[in-house]
Amino acid sequence: VNTLSFPQKELAEAVARAGRSDAYRGRLPSNVDESSFERVPFTTKDDLRAAYPFGLLAVPQSEIATYHESSGTTGKPISSYFSNADWEDIHTRFNRNGVALSPNDLVLVKTPYALVTTAHQMHGAALRAGASVVPADNRSHNMPYARVLRLLRDLPITVAWCMPTEALLWAYAANRLKIDLAAVKLRAFVVAGEALSPAKKNRISRLWSGRRVFEDYGSTETGSLAGECVRGRVHLWSDRVHFELRDPETLEPARGNRGELVVTPLFRQAMPLVRYRMEDEVELDHAPCDCGSASPSVRVLGRNGSAHRIGEREVNSLELDDAIYSAAEECGLWFWRGRKRNDALEVEIHAEHPRLAERFVSQRVRDRLGIPVSIRSVGGEAFVPESLFRAEAPMQKPRFLFGENEEFKSLDYA
Ligand SMILES: [Zn+2]
Questions:
Q1: For residues 69 and 123, is the Cβ–Cβ distance under 8 A?
Q2: Do residues 365 and 371 touch, judged by C-beta distance below 8 A?
Q3: Cα of 385 from ligand 1 centre, angstroms
Q4: How far apart are CA 279 and CA 361, in angstroms?
Q5: What are the distances in angstroms from CA 412 to CA 165, 189, 385?
Q6: How much of the chain exceeds pLDDT 90, in percent?
Q7: Backbone dihedral angles phi then psi of residue 223, each to the nearest 5 degrees
C-alpha cells in the first residue's frame, strides 16, 4: 500500500546540504542510499527547539531572505528561515493548488504576518502568479469582522486565504450584519491551519452560496506540503519533498495507509530538514486522480495524541466535527464545542433552530460514534464575542500632546 518513491539523487544532495548545519553535522551518512537513509535519525520538534535560533543554518546568514518562528504551545520557539530560492520552491508548489491564481485575481490574505509563514506564503505566491494582494493580516483589534466584510463587499476580492473556521465566522458575521454573501465577488477560499472535516467544508461552501473551498497542508517549518486539486483531492508535492508514512509509536513504516507523515524537503537551502516528524496523523490515498497528478493525496486526521477516550472509544475532534456538521443544513448549525464529562460527551452548540439542532446533532453523534452524549444550545456570544461585529476601530497612533479638555491616553495604541 505504502508505495512512496525514493528519489535517490535529490535525497543524497539534501542530506549532504543538511550536514553543513551545526545540528546535523557528523550525524548523517555521506552519499545516502535507501538502506543508509533508513538509519538516519528522525528530527523532532524538540530537536528544532534545541537548535534555536540558528543551529540548522546551512548557508551563510547573509543568504537568509526571511526569519520566522512558529507559535509553539510550550515555551521555547521553533525558528525557521528561508533563502530566496527556498521561497521560490515553496511559492511555486503552493501555486499548484486547484484555485489556479491568475492576474485576474485579487487575493485577501487573512492569516497572520507576524513571524509565522502562512501570510507570506500566499502573499508571495499570489504576486508570483501575477495576482494582486490585499494584506489584511489575522483577526485583531484593527480587523474586526465588520471590516473584513466591508472589504469583501466593496472590493472585487476573488480569493480569500484564511483558516477554515474564519470562513465560517465571516458567514456568521454577514448573517448578523445583514450582508448578502451571494452578492460578493469572491470565487473561492484557500484554507489551511486546521484539520477540516468534509461536513464542515461542505457547510462553509453552502453558507457561501456554493463557492469552492481549496485546502492546503503545511507548516511554518516546511511551507506547503500538499494542496487540493480541481477534483477535490489534496495531493502531496512529492517531487519537491520526500514523504514517509510511519507508525507514530514504533516509527516503523506504517502497515496500512494511516500513520504519521515524516518529511524531507528535497531542495531546501537555508534550513534543510531531514526526516522531520510532522506529528500529525494522516491517511494517504494512492488511487489515480482524474486531475492527472501522479502524487498520492493526503487527509489530515489531527494531532497525534489529541483524542479523548470516552466509553470504549477514542474520540478525535475531526470525526466528531464531521458527525456534528453533517446535521448542519437541517438545523442551521453554526458552532459546537465539546468536552468529556463523567465518561460521556457534553456538547454545546449554537444553531438557527436550537431544538431541532439538539435532536439532530445528538442523533448523528450517537449513530456515528456510538458514545453517550448530552447536547445543550447556547447563544452565539458564547462562541463569538460581540465586539468582533462592531464597526471598525480607527487605527491609533501614539500621541503625546492633547487638547484642552481631552483625557490623556496611554501608549497602548494597537
Ligand atoms: Zn487530483
A1: no
A2: yes
A3: 39
A4: 30
A5: 29, 34, 21
A6: 86
A7: 70, -175
Q: How far is CA 131 from the centre of its chain?
A: 22
- List, as own/partner pairs, every contact residues 395-403 make where C-beta atoms lie below 8 angstroms and the sequence separation is at least 24, other chains included: 395/142
The structure's pTM equals 0.95
If you average pLDDT over each of 3-12, 66-75, 125-134, 137-146, which comes out highest? 125-134
Separation CA 108–CA 149 (nearest Å): 11
H or E stretch covering 135: strand 132-135
Please tell me the distance between residue 7's alpha carbon and the centre of ligand 1 in angstroms.
21
Q: Supply 272's cell numbers.
A: 534543510
Cα(259) to centroid(ligand 1), Å: 21
Cα(90)–Cα(109) distance, integer angstroms = 17
Cis amide linkage into residue 53, ω under 30° from 0: yes
Contacts by 284-293 with C-beta closer than 8 Å and gap 24+? 284/2, 284/236, 284/245, 284/257, 284/258, 285/233, 285/257, 286/1, 286/3, 286/257, 289/229, 289/231, 289/233, 289/235, 290/231, 291/98, 291/229, 291/230, 291/231, 291/233, 291/235, 293/229, 293/233, 293/235
Distance from the CA of 101 to the center of ligand 1, in angstroms? Answer: 17
Unique residue bearing C-alpha cell 439538539: 358
